[in-house]
Amino acid sequence: MPQIRINELTIHYNDNHHTGRCVVLLHGWGQNKSMMEPIEQFFQQDFRIINVDLPGFGASDSPIKPWGVFEYTDFLKSFLDALDVDQPILIAHSFGARLAIVFASRYPTKKLVLTGAAGIKPKRTLVYHVRVQTYKIAKTVFKLPGLSKHQESMRRFFGSSDYRTITGVMRQSFVKIVNEDLTDLLGKITCPTLLIWGEKDDSTPLWMGRLMEKRISDAGLVIFEGEDHYAYWNQIARFNKICDVFLAEEKELAP
Questions:
Q1: CATH architecture of 3-121+181-250
Q2: Helix, strand, or coil here: 91?
């Protein structure tokens, strides 16, 4: 597996070194490049495909300090510059789509495919606000003598499933990332954008996809009926065929 040093981190990735335009695959939080391999394999005959383990995931090193979306995007730019990639096509899922949104709002990007894209702050219910206030009270209570040793258990109880499965710098990064709202950047994306969403996605609900379609100047939304946050994975053959049509004009073109 190829690896490269970027910002003092060892990064693992796949690169088929095709002479065509470059497609970069960006996986979701808690995942790694294996989740994008069916896409990599489908397009490898027509494009240069770079499939990367983002920092903190798979075989790649974790950031030395907590990173938010913008630090991750700075990494992505340095990574692609080191591999001589210009105006990439980005195919991204969930957390990876956060990076793609920031990248495309800042740097020349040929096309975007975003599926189950994160980046818009969710609408908060009364239950959520009650839970937050309860957590704030619990944090104070569990600082008391005799209770401090249970602080980690308390954090795990109140945290999301993603939060509960990570520790250290990646947990701090996660907290930073989920509190960053990228809505205002959507209007700065000018490249053609394909949005593919699961109708029953409860991690990034469909209304987020509709909002992205509205805010991005050249965007279209495809809905996979009855599917969840992993719609692309659950119907990978359908996903690849739709992307193939969207990217048809780019085949065999020089970067």
A1: 3-Layer(aba) Sandwich (3.40)
A2: strand
Is residue 95 within 8 Å of residue 118, measured between CB atoms?
A: yes
pLDDT at position 120 is 96
Question: Considering just the CA atoms, what is the radius of gyration of the chain in Å?
Answer: 19
137-149 pLDDT, tens digit per residue, is 434 543 545 544 4
Mean pLDDT of all residues in 193-201: 98
In the chain, list all ranges with CATH 3.40.50.1820: 3-121+181-250
Residue written as token pair 């994008």: 36
Q: How far apart are CA 36 and CA 137, in angstroms?
A: 41
Mean pLDDT (the chain) is 87
Q: Computed from CA positions of residues 244, 120, 219, 13, in that sequence, does the dihedral angle turn out positive or negative?
A: negative
Spatial separation of the C-alpha atoms in residues 250 and 208, rounded to whole Å: 28
Return d(Cα 130, Cα 178) in angstroms, integer.
19
pLDDT tens digits for range 59-77: 999 999 999 999 999 999 9
One-letter amino acid identity for 178?
V
Tokens of 158: 């109140």
For every residue of 183-230, DSSP letters joined together read GGGGGG--S-EEEEEETT-SSS-HHHHHHHHHHSTTEEEEEETT--TT
Strand-by-strand arrangement of the 9-15 sheet? 3-6, 9-15, 48-52, 22-26, 89-93, 111-115, 193-198, 219-224
**DSSP state string for 101-154:** HHHHHHS--SEEEEES---SPPPPPHHHHHHHHHHHHHHHHTTSTTTGGGHHHH
Question: What integer pLDDT is reported at residue 253 of this predicted model?
Answer: 58
